[in-house]
Write a structure and sequence with these properties.
The chain is mostly helical and about 80 residues long. It has a domain of about 60 residues. The protein is about 55% helix and about 0% strand. It is built from three helices and no strands. Helix 1 packs across helix 3 and helix 2 packs antiparallel against helix 3. It is elongated, with a radius of gyration of 16 Å. The termini are far apart.
C-alpha cells in the first residue's frame, strides 16, 4: 500500500489582512462596479474567506474579514441608490 500523500500547504497569509483598505483591495472593489458585479465579488470573497470554510486557527480573522467585506459591499450598494447632488 502506497504511503498517503501529505496534504498540500494552505496559504493563510490573506487572513492577516484585516484593515478595510486591504479587504477592499482583496475584493477588488471599483467605483464602476454594478450591483450584480458587487454581489458576485461578495460571493467570490466569501468562498475564499468564510469562517466555516477556513482553517480553525483562522476563523476569528475570517469572521472579521467577512464583516468588513459585507460592510464595504453594502455601503457601495447603498451609494448606488443614494440620490446624487
Amino acid at each position: 500500500m502506497p504511503a498517503p500523500r501529505p496534504e498540500p500547504a494552505i496559504d493563510i497569509s490573506h487572513f492577516k489582512r484585516l484593515s478595510p483598505e486591504e479587504v477592499a483591495k482583496d475584493i477588488n472593489l471599483l467605483a464602476t462596479d454594478t450591483a450584480a458585479e458587487l454581489q458576485s465579488k461578495r460571493r467570490s470573497f466569501a468562498r475564499r474567506n468564510h469562517p466555516d470554510r477556513s482553517p480553525v486557527e483562522c476563523r476569528d480573522a475570517a469572521t472579521i474579514r467577512m464583516k468588513i467585506a459585507n460592510h464595504l459591499v453594502d455601503e457601495a450598494l447603498r451609494g448606488m441608490r443614494a440620490p446624487r447632488s
